[in-house]
Amino acid sequence: MAPAVADLRKADYVARRSRFTDLxxxxxxxxxxxxxxxxRKAIYMDVYRxxxxxxKRGKSLLFDLTEIDAWLESLRRVSVEEAIENACGVR
Length: 91
Known about the structure:
Number of helices: 5
Mean pLDDT: 83
Order of helices and strands: HEHHEEHH
Low-confidence stretches: none
Strand content: 5-15%
Largest sheet: 3 strands, antiparallel
Structural class: mainly alpha
Number of strands: 3
Shape: elongated
Helix content: 55-70%
Strand order of the largest sheet: 1-3-2
C-alpha cells in the first residue's frame, strides 16, 4: 500500500529540517561540549571570520549539516600513505 501524499510531504519536511542545526547543535556535532562557552565562542569566531558555512536568519545562526560535512572534508589532509598510493596509482 502506497503512503499518503501528506505523509510523503511531512517526511520530506522532516528530512530537510533535520539537516539544519544551531550553534549548540553544531558544537555537539563537532564532538565538543555545547555547555562549554569556550567551544561555542571558537565556532562563533570562525563564523565571524567567514571560515564556516552558515545561514544568518535575524539574530540566529543556522548550519546546514551537509555543507558542514563538505567543509570538513575540504579541510581533510591526505596522509603520507594516501599520497604515495595516489602517486603510484596503487589501491
